[in-house]
From TrEMBL:
GO CC annotations on file: cytoplasm
SUPFAM superfamilies tied to this protein: Diaminopimelate epimerase-like
Pfam families named among the record's database cross-references: PhzC-PhzF
Protein name: Oxidoreductase
Keywords: Isomerase
Transferase among keywords: no
MF terms in GO: isomerase activity
Cross-referenced InterPro entries: Phenazine_PhzF-like
Species whose genome carries this gene: Streptomyces malaysiense
Stretch forming the signal peptide: none
Family, similarity comment: Belongs to the PhzF family.
């Protein structure tokens, strides 16, 4: 079985967020224990497993995502990576509909190689700043919002770009505050620099201290910053060590996430 490592939300190798991608033979998923073992072996934020569905249904491929320690309900970068593999290998042409735990998600490739994902917009609920979160994160929040069950994070707005870039959180302490983790964000100091807002994402509860570029987090970042900045279409920078840009388009209950991907490794899975 072929396995690929794809850098998603990147236009060059060794940037963005790497994901494992396996296009499975047959019409069903293998044992969860095997998929979890493969994801642990790949040891990237997520590994995606996809199999083809019968023609004529609501979706074209079934898709699941695993971190090194657990299955997750939503993942943007591994969905982008899977759509990229389907397109570049010729396994699927045009828009692809994925059946997932988060409903049917559509990925639409453009002629220039970019891919746009259609994801559900996260429902944001303002909450009081939890006791201790400032100390665990290492910065005082300006605002805190719950992102709902699908995303499973707290979105924490901070004072400025410098504060977000300088974070050195206590990852173990952060695990107490949400199902998955913390999205830390601020408005860009200089919007002429190519992005409107920036973020960093810390997910200790799914085995990822800091995720390089998180598509699902942008389903919460998009409505938050669109409300703040008064525009539906924005660009977010995830300021991890690898960095990546995500173009976001708020469309009511749906959020469009656009980015590029690059295959960096292709090989044979022998186990």
């Amino acid at each position: 079985m072929r396995i690929r490592i794809v850098d998603a939300f990147a236009d060059r190798p060794f940037a963005g967020n790497p994901a494992g991608v396996l296009l499975l033979d047959g019409d069903s998923f293998p044992a969860e224990s095997w998929m979890q073992s493969v994801a642990m072996e790949v040891n990237h934020a997520e590994t995606a497993f996809a199999h083809r569905l019968p023609a004529g249904g609501d979706a074209d491929w079934a898709l699941r995502w695993f971190t090194p320690v657990t299955e997750v309900a939503m993942c943007g970068h591994a969905t982008l990576a899977t759509a990229h593999v389907l397109r570049t290998t010729g396994a699927h042409e045009g828009p692809v509909r994925f059946a997932t735990r988060s409903g049917v998600l559509v990925a639409t490739p453009a002629e220039d190689g970019a891919i746009t994902l259609d994801f559900p917009t996260a429902p944001l609920t303002p909450v009081a700043v939890p006791d201790g979160v400032a100390g665990a994160l290492g910065a005082e929040p300006v605002a805190v919002l719950d992102t709902g069950a699908n995303v499973g994070d707290l979105l924490v707005e901070l004072a400025d770009e410098k504060t977000v870039r300088g974070l050195a959180p206590d990852h173990k302490a952060l695990a107490a505050y949400s199902a998955r983790g913390i999205i830390a964000t601020a408005r860009a100091d200089d919007p002429s620099g190519g992005y409107d807002y920036l973020s960093r994402c810390f997910f200790p509860n799914v085995g990822i201290d800091e995720d390089p570029v998180t598509g699902s987090a942008h389903t919460a970042l998009a409505p938050h910053w669109s409300a703040r900045l008064g525009r539906a279409d924005l660009t977010g920078l995830q300021a991890s060590g690898r960095t990546g840009l995500v173009r976001t388009g708020l469309r009511g209950e749906r959020t469009l996430l656009t980015g590029r991907a690059v295959t960096v490794i292709e090989g044979e899975l022998l186990a």
